[in-house]
Design goal:
Strand 3 and strand 4 form a beta hairpin. This protein has a 4-stranded antiparallel beta sheet, with helices on one face. The radius of gyration is 27 Å and the shape is rod-shaped. By secondary structure, the chain is of the alpha+beta class. It has one domain.
């Protein structure tokens, strides 16, 4: 009877090989999942920046229809409220107009200041809706 009980206890345990296989599978899944998660969270953060840039584009179109030019357009005079661009990751100060001429402009969104992540990108778009790129920066 003692032999049977001893054999039964041994059958219930995992072998070292089985545990190593499970650890290997979990490690492989982690190597795949972590970069995907990181990329998707960065994309989600930047979606807020793209939406804010769209708000600025709409305000600039209104400014152009009223003035016939983009010259003189600044973030403070294009009829955007103080909370219109305030989000979870981006503050109103994260959006700038680095280039404004009579018929062209460039909107720069980012890097987002309300996140603690480093190496976040910024986004640029012009009056034609052409994305000038998403550039990574170290905050």
């Amino acid at each position: 009877m003692a032999k049977l009980a001893k054999r039964m206890r041994r059958k219930e345990a995992f072998t070292l090989v089985e545990l190593m296989i499970v650890v290997t599978i979990v490690a492989i899944l982690a190597l795949i999942a972590i970069p995907l998660y990181s990329a998707n969270t960065t994309a989600a953060v930047m979606a807020e920046g793209v939406a804010g840039a769209g708000t600025i584009r709409s305000a600039l179109r209104i400014y152009y229809s009223q003035n016939g030019t983009y010259t003189g357009a600044t973030m403070s005079n294009i009829s955007i409220g103080t909370t219109d661009l305030q989000g979870k990751y981006f503050a109103q100060t994260d959006y700038t107009l680095p280039t404004v001429t009579s018929s062209t402009y460039v909107i720069k969104a980012g890097p987002p200041s309300l996140t603690t992540r480093t190496g976040m990108p910024y986004y640029e778009i012009n009056q034609l809706g052409s994305e000038l790129g998403t550039y990574y920066t170290n905050q």
